[in-house]
Amino acid sequence: MLYYLHSWAGEGWSLLALFGPVAFRAALAAVFAFVLCVAAGRPFIAWLRRRKIEEDVGKKDSQFLIEKHAQKKHTPTMGGVVLVGSALLATVLFARLDVPFVPLAVFGALAMGAVGFYDDWIKLNRKGQKGLSIKGKLFFQFLVGGIAGAVLLHYGDAETGSMVAVPFVERALWPALGYGYIAWAALVFTGSTNAVNLTDGLDGLATLCTLTAAAVFGLLAYLAGSAGLSANLGVPGVAGAGELCVVCAALFGACLGFLWFNAHPAEVFMGDTGSLPLGSLLGLVALSIRQELLLVLVGGVFVAEALSVLIQIFSFRCFGRRVFLIAPLHHHLEKVGWSETKIVSRFFIVSVLLAVCGVATLRL
C-alpha cells in the first residue's frame, strides 16, 4: 500500500519517492516483519501460556519421541499466527497489490493458515485425534493449488504462461503444459506445503531452512521482474514478478523474528498454523516465476524430509520393513544419537550450500 505514496510525492515530499523502488520496499518489509514479530511475540506467547495452548507430545507416533521430547510438553504452540501475520502484514503494506502475484500469495497463505489452524485446534481440543486427516489436508491443498494454477495461467503470457523452466536446459526445450499447468501447480503447491510441514519437528529447523529458500527466491523474483537481467541470466522473465521480492523479504524478516523465540530451546512452536503457510508461500513464489524445479534444489532439505516419509511408507506397506528408524529424517538422526542442535545446525548448513548452488545456476 505504501508504494502508492510515491506517486503522490511532489517537490516537498521527495522522501516519499523512496517507496517506488522494489528493492527499498523489500528491505523495509523485512525489517518491519522482523520488528513486528519480535514485538508481538512475547505477549502472544504469554497469552498462549495462559490459555494452555501447549504442545501435546503424547500424540506423537513413537514412544522414543514421546520420551525424547518430554521437556517440550508445556511449550506453547500455534505461534505461526504471529509469524504468518507479520509476513502478510508487511506484504500488504509494502508490496503492490495491483500485481496479481501478491494477492495470490496472500490468499494461499491465508487459506493454508486456516487449514493449519483447524488442524492444530483438533489436536488441542479433541482427545485421541492427531489433527485433520491426511485426505482432508490433501484435498484443501490440491484445491488451493489448482486455483493458483488457474489464476497464473489466466494472467500469464500467452507464450510462456504454462511454461516450466528446466535448469541446465535451453529455453527452446522448456515444456509448455497448457491447461495441464493447473494440475502441475496443484502438485507443486501440495508438495511444497507438506515438505515444510514435515520438516517442522525440531526447534528452529523449518524456520532456518525457510530463511535460505526465501532469500534465494526473493533474488530470483527480482531478476525475473527485470527484462534486462532476466534475459542476460537466462531467468524466465515475468512482468510484475519483482513484487514477489517484497513477499520473500517479508517472509525472511518474519522468520528471523520468529527464530528469536523458536531457537533451541524453543519458547514457542509454529504448529501447522505456521508451517503450512510457509510452504505455500514458497510454492506460490516458485510457480509465479516459473522456477518450480529449482525449488527442488534450493529446498533440498525439505525434499529430503518429505522423501524420507514417502520411502518409509512405501517400504513398510510393500515389504513390511522400515528403511529409517523413524521418519522424517531428522527424527531418524535423533534416534541414531545426534543431538537436536547438531541436526538443526547441519541441516541449516546444507540448506545454505543448496541456496548457493541454486544461485550458481544463474550463470549456467
In short:
Helices cover 65% and strands 0% of the residues. By secondary structure, the chain is mainly α. The mean pLDDT is 89.
Task: Describe the fold and architecture.
The mean pLDDT is 89. It is globular and about 55 Å long. The chain contains 14 helices and no strands. It has helices at 22-50, 63-68, 80-94, 101-125, 134-155, 180-199, 205-224, 227-233, 243-262, 271-288, 292-298, 300-319, 329-336, 340-360. The protein has one domain (2-363). Helix 3 packs parallel to helix 10 and helix 6 (180-199) packs across helix 12. The chain is mostly helical and 364 residues long.
Radius of gyration: 20 Å
Which class best fits the helix and strand makeup? mainly alpha
N- to C-terminal separation? Answer: 37 Å
Main sheet specs: none
* pLDDT averaged over residues: 89
Give the uncertain stretches in residue-range form.
none
**Tally of domains:** 1
Helix content: 55-70%
Structure summary, number of beta strands: 0
Please report the number of helical segments: 14
* Global morphology: globular
Order of helices and strands: HHHHHHHHHHHHHH
**Portion in beta strands:** under 5%
